[in-house]
């Protein structure tokens, strides 16, 4: 007889749980739906599968403690940050009660993830926790994040975490069974898409807006997250997190929702980070007829080929290289600051510019560049 252990081959998984599961009534945390997820985590760990949890819900969990919620008024940003601070404690306490093994809290911002040194630090922390049998629970640090520093939704955050954790599987919990060809809340004849071998514009067109009154992520952000994850070679599932049967089905080696197949040639970690996690702090604009193979010999990108330097960036920041018509060519680590690049490109004496670059080195390096498919 086939044993349960042989039905799944996961080694390390990331599970994303949304606000609607954490605080379905916006009256503090509830274990009603979380118990089934916790049991799934326990069963996975018993099978030797390492688990990382990405949990939304701090704002929803803390909302009931504030007058703005009681008066049914829209809270200010400052109050929402305070809700997150209070709710994060309640949310972590709820998760901790559901497990008989230790848990750890990791709060991050996109500013942490897009900085390579801090990104590596997060990776190392996750690995150390897993090695010691501790369940990492990650959430965006809503209390301190700003528009410039936030990911904005934990679907995309979970994909970034899955890549950082070197997970082989990402499970994103939703309030529907998966991706449908139309909104199942509005169309009773909507059909579930069980398998997505490639994420195309047609797949994105099937995604509507957010269906939950509590969370910020809709199906579109889940597909965006799947796109990030599969590029790293990670099997990705969007499933219904409100039913226990979902998790029984997964452990039986079957697909209860929508499965997004991993790319056959996944990106290595550094290029994936640059493409899908790091944010361009500025851009270099080149002529429309620029045709150098940037990943083959980036020294071909000289100051004479740059017609504009946009943004304010420092040495080591990620930048976008694009054509004047808007075609995106690559994201890369800049070896020059925007101030210095602007000075060089504005020189009338091209010999001076060339000698300067010969002395100081290439503008971008082959080892720190990710080619892009224009969107």
TrEMBL record:
<dbReference type="InterPro" id="IPR015947">
    <property type="entry name" value="PUA-like_sf"/>
</dbReference>
<feature type="binding site">
    <location>
        <position position="56"/>
    </location>
    <ligand>
        <name>substrate</name>
    </ligand>
</feature>
<keyword id="KW-0963">Cytoplasm</keyword>
<keyword id="KW-0547">Nucleotide-binding</keyword>
<dbReference type="InterPro" id="IPR041739">
    <property type="entry name" value="G5K_ProB"/>
</dbReference>
<dbReference type="GO" id="GO:0005829">
    <property type="term" value="C:cytosol"/>
</dbReference>
<dbReference type="InterPro" id="IPR001057">
    <property type="entry name" value="Glu/AcGlu_kinase"/>
</dbReference>
<feature type="binding site">
    <location>
        <begin position="174"/>
        <end position="175"/>
    </location>
    <ligand>
        <name>ATP</name>
    </ligand>
</feature>
<dbReference type="Pfam" id="PF00696">
    <property type="entry name" value="AA_kinase"/>
</dbReference>
<keyword id="KW-0067">ATP-binding</keyword>
<feature type="domain" description="Aspartate/glutamate/uridylate kinase">
    <location>
        <begin position="11"/>
        <end position="240"/>
    </location>
</feature>
<keyword id="KW-0641">Proline biosynthesis</keyword>
<dbReference type="InterPro" id="IPR005715">
    <property type="entry name" value="Glu_5kinase/COase_Synthase"/>
</dbReference>
<dbReference type="InterPro" id="IPR001048">
    <property type="entry name" value="Asp/Glu/Uridylate_kinase"/>
</dbReference>
<feature type="binding site">
    <location>
        <position position="154"/>
    </location>
    <ligand>
        <name>substrate</name>
    </ligand>
</feature>
<keyword id="KW-0808">Transferase</keyword>
<feature type="binding site">
    <location>
        <position position="142"/>
    </location>
    <ligand>
        <name>substrate</name>
    </ligand>
</feature>
<feature type="binding site">
    <location>
        <position position="16"/>
    </location>
    <ligand>
        <name>ATP</name>
    </ligand>
</feature>
<dbReference type="GO" id="GO:0003723">
    <property type="term" value="F:RNA binding"/>
</dbReference>
<comment type="similarity">
    <text>Belongs to the glutamate 5-kinase family.</text>
</comment>
<dbReference type="InterPro" id="IPR019797">
    <property type="entry name" value="Glutamate_5-kinase_CS"/>
</dbReference>
<dbReference type="GO" id="GO:0005524">
    <property type="term" value="F:ATP binding"/>
</dbReference>
<protein>
    <recommendedName>
        <fullName>Glutamate 5-kinase</fullName>
        <ecNumber>2.7.2.11</ecNumber>
    </recommendedName>
</protein>
<keyword id="KW-0418">Kinase</keyword>
<dbReference type="GO" id="GO:0004349">
    <property type="term" value="F:glutamate 5-kinase activity"/>
</dbReference>
<comment type="function">
    <text>Catalyzes the transfer of a phosphate group to glutamate to form L-glutamate 5-phosphate.</text>
</comment>
<dbReference type="InterPro" id="IPR036393">
    <property type="entry name" value="AceGlu_kinase-like_sf"/>
</dbReference>
<dbReference type="GO" id="GO:0055129">
    <property type="term" value="P:L-proline biosynthetic process"/>
</dbReference>
<comment type="pathway">
    <text>Amino-acid biosynthesis; L-proline biosynthesis; L-glutamate 5-semialdehyde from L-glutamate: step 1/2.</text>
</comment>
<feature type="binding site">
    <location>
        <begin position="216"/>
        <end position="222"/>
    </location>
    <ligand>
        <name>ATP</name>
    </ligand>
</feature>
<keyword id="KW-0028">Amino-acid biosynthesis</keyword>
<dbReference type="InterPro" id="IPR011529">
    <property type="entry name" value="Glu_5kinase"/>
</dbReference>
<dbReference type="InterPro" id="IPR036974">
    <property type="entry name" value="PUA_sf"/>
</dbReference>
